[in-house]
Amino acid sequence: MIPVSTFKDRTVALFGLGGSGLATARALIAGGAEVTAWDDSSESVAKAAAEGIPTGDLRGLDWDDVEALVLAPGVPLTHPEPHWSARLAQEAGVEIIGDIELFCRERRLAPRHPPFAAITGTNGKSTTTALLAHLMKVGGRDAQIGGNFGPAILGLEPPKPGRVYVIECSSYQIDLAPSLDPAVGILLNLSPDHLDRHGTMEHYAAVKERLVAQVEAGGTAVIGVDDEWSRAIADRVEAAGRNVVRISVRERLAGGIWLDGDTLNVTKNATTEFTLSLAGIGSLRGAHNAQNAAAAFAAARALGLAPEVIATGMRSFPGLAHRMEEVRTIGKVLFVNDSKATNADAAERALTSFEDIFWIAGGKPKEGGIAPLKPYFPRVRKAYLIGVAAEDFAGTLGADVPHEISGTLEVAVESAARDAAASGLASPVVLLSPACASFDQFRNFEVRGDAFRTLVKALP
């Protein structure tokens, strides 16, 4: 745990008692704050009270005495409208912050600021976070990994020499961290997502931009430049005097890290300084993972690792569950769990990684459906559609792609496995890349991916 001393002997209201909220409450109490915590769920309140966290309905507080409202990232701050607790704080002129902000304030108080890398983007955050932490460990560092991926940030071990923090940050967390100032900030990419919580793409992008625009003095901003939003951000951040490393998997860069075939090229002033082949690294298959690798390479260099050490770490990276996870091969058929692909943009990355795909897709649809994926339909030999989106997806596929409405994941896996085995193709792939949220049939994408893995492992 990282005790939060910045609110010692001061009154703090806390709303949201999920995993990160409980960790934050513990850290505030350990640092000497006077905490009153609450949640709209009576079960969550009871759980907090049972472990000794002071609870009380925030509507009964004297807000004149409250120094800050610490809001869990899942609680709306602005859209579609502020949560009632946020409104109370706003009306009282009380600052509203989150656990990332508390960590940043504690870090600035440490005698030596521990290295801190923050990672964001619409897609690829978790893989990049895990990969960077893996590289740091290969390089002999004590890498603490958490935030939006893994443990809550305040549940990590406190700063000490040789320790580095590798933290995934969602847009919700950045929105609650006004003084976020990492040593290395990574912005991978931007595409429409979470607009129900941010209102417009402009606001969503502006929130993400803060993570790289506010890197500490002497720090490094690593920015993907393969979409217009991020490219414009890179230009603005550099114009403001920050050190920017651009990365691309679509174009050659005179300065930065870019992909040529399956090789990353590290260039400066149009001169290649280092190359790294990603061929044969199954956990980094596809252009989307090349982008993740480029970002992690740039961040690891900024944090002091030698290119040769980084290359060694890349080759030993095991990958993440539910993100292009190679589950099993039966005969010639490879089964891939990409359950984390909850939107079309994420599914695109999987579809570009294989040629002969037996595609399992569907669930609770997001805006735009799978229409943006039409350029990749020729790679799909057959689609197996599940969940609420099945009928709409069938309409989009039309006569372009053979398909069936399987309804459930169990039926889809059985049918896809049978058809792929009988296809006679050299390298068929049964790919779960749903392009949908899971909430119609599964609690989350992890449960959906676990179900896929279990079904595949049960195949004869």
TrEMBL record:
GO terms for cellular component: cytoplasm. The keyword Nucleotide-binding applies. ATP binds at residues 121-127. InterPro entries: Mur-like_cat_sf, Mur_ligase_C, Mur_ligase_C_dom_sf, Mur_ligase_cen, MurD. Pfam families: Mur_ligase_C, Mur_ligase_M. The keyword Cell cycle applies. Cell wall formation. Catalyzes the addition of glutamate to the nucleotide precursor UDP-N-acetylmuramoyl-L-alanine (UMA). Belongs to the MurCDEF family. It is found in: Cytoplasm. It comes from Ancylobacter novellus (strain ATCC 8093 / DSM 506 / JCM 20403 / CCM 1077 / IAM 12100 / NBRC 12443 / NCIMB 10456). Residues 322-436 form the Mur ligase C-terminal domain. It catalyses: UDP-N-acetyl-alpha-D-muramoyl-L-alanine + D-glutamate + ATP = UDP-N-acetyl-alpha-D-muramoyl-L-alanyl-D-glutamate + ADP + phosphate + H(+). This is UDP-N-acetylmuramoylalanine--D-glutamate ligase. Residues 119-300 form the Mur ligase central domain. Pathway: Cell wall biogenesis; peptidoglycan biosynthesis. Its EC number is 6.3.2.9.
